[in-house]
Amino acid sequence: MNPSEERRDPGLQPERTLLSWQRMLILLALVGLLYLRGPLEPGSTVVPEVAPLLRVGFMGFTLLLGAGLGLHLWLRWRRTSHGVRDPRTGQPPLSVASPWAMAVLCTGVMAMTVTVVATVLVP
Amino acid sequence: MSTEVPEGEQAVDYRFTLANERTFLAWIRTALALLAGAVAVLHLLPLAWDETLRTVVGLLLAVLAAIVTVYAPVRWYRVQKVMRRGGNLRMSVLPLITTFAVGLVCLVVLLGNLL
């Protein structure tokens, strides 16, 4: 990549990627909120209700996961001077979040999915 | 780009790796949206369905979310490897499967409300 190209794209790609992460975090909290909520019709016995404690736990889990990832992103964003320069290489960073953060995210989403399935299959 | 490139591997443009990361996130968001749909069908909407149909539709969405969650990091890793070593990326059929499954669920919900 030549220097003139670098100046034409001042950190737009990292910023887009960070926004992508933010959209994901918002959606994570939304799924938690959705699970926390009971049936849309109060007192309705049509749909199965999950124990309130489990619902609160699920919500807490999504918030914790989101907060942890958000903190990681924020620290990395600051360290790489807003995604423009990786202090170790002096080049733009190759990723906004580290691969282990992606692994944590996948594991978390998997755990949520398993919980949703389990609470339906095991009344 | 990084000056320390392992033997037999090419230097990767950061814009491509970031694009790969965004693709991974798009897949994860798809999984989360499917999971939200599963929660809505299973626990929220009092659709006047028999229990079996509701459970089947909800579980189908949840299982699809699980598949996407496993696929996303695998795909990310493969793309990273291809970018470092060169080679061709094959498109998978998962986007098609996801689209058809979501379409099918929409159809079932629509019919379930009409019938």
TrEMBL record, chain A:
Localization of this protein: Endomembrane system
Keyword Transmembrane helix included in the entry's annotation: yes
Superkingdom of origin: Bacteria
Membrane protein topology class: Multi-pass membrane protein
Membrane-crossing residue ranges in chain numbering: 20-36, 56-75, 96-122
Residue ranges annotated for the DUF202 domain, each copy included: 9-82
InterPro entries per the UniProt record, alphabetical: DUF202
Pfam families cross-referenced by the UniProt entry: DUF202
Chief site of localization: membrane
Keywords assigned by UniProt, alphabetized: Membrane, Transmembrane, Transmembrane helix
Annotated protein name in UniProt: DUF202 domain-containing protein
Automatic annotation (TrEMBL), chain B:
Transmembrane segment boundaries: 24-49, 55-72, 93-114
Cellular compartments annotated: Cell membrane
Family annotation (InterPro entries): DUF202, IM_YidH-like
Domain DUF202: 15-81
The UniProt record lists the keyword Glycosyltransferase: no
Transmembrane listed as a keyword: yes
Membrane topology, from the record: Multi-pass membrane protein
UniProt protein name: DUF202 domain-containing protein
Lineage: Bacteria, Bacillati, Actinomycetota, Actinomycetes, Streptosporangiales
